[in-house]
Amino acid sequence: MTLDRWIALVILLICLAYGYAAFFTMDHLLPPFMQRNPIWPSTFPKVLAVLASLTALVVLLGLEPAPKDKGTPDIDYRRLGDYKIGQALILLGLMVLYALMLRPAGFIIATILFITLSAVTLGERKFHFLVPIAALATGIVWWLVQGVLGIFLRPLPFFLG
Questions:
Q1: Any stretches that span the bilayer, and where are they (predicted)?
Q2: Domain-wise residue ranges, the chain
Q3: What is the pLDDT of residues 51-89, one digit of tens each?
Q4: What is the largest CA-CA distance in the chain?
Q5: pTM beyond 0.90
């Protein structure tokens, strides 16, 4: 079995566990007034689990269209050193750091720093575009979550109130 099918098998197993949690463990915890709603908090996880499982099955069963050229595979696990693994590990580290800094630094500062540092890691060097775009995107997301959805999201660090 090729590497992409092994990855699809792992993703399928994760999706099945996620789907089990979405279909069988989330809904009984809802209060009675929410059980009459057409869309529950578990609706998106259910859709996501089904679509991801179907996609993983398509790859696992080999139903996707064959590539036009039969040359080298997309990912050669024997040449992992040739890929930019350092950038991927730095991005994973930035994601973990972002999750840890979200409460103490606040959403706005942590998100602007995460977007900026991630873009710099990937090679962006035009800071006069990068920082305003990161700030604008962060502000829009914060407004959507706080203002539109009504979910409190601490915008600034805890010591700034």
A1: 45-63, 83-100, 106-122, 129-153
A2: 1-61, 84-148
A3: 999 999 999 998 877 767 666 656 666 777 777 888 989
A4: 60
A5: no
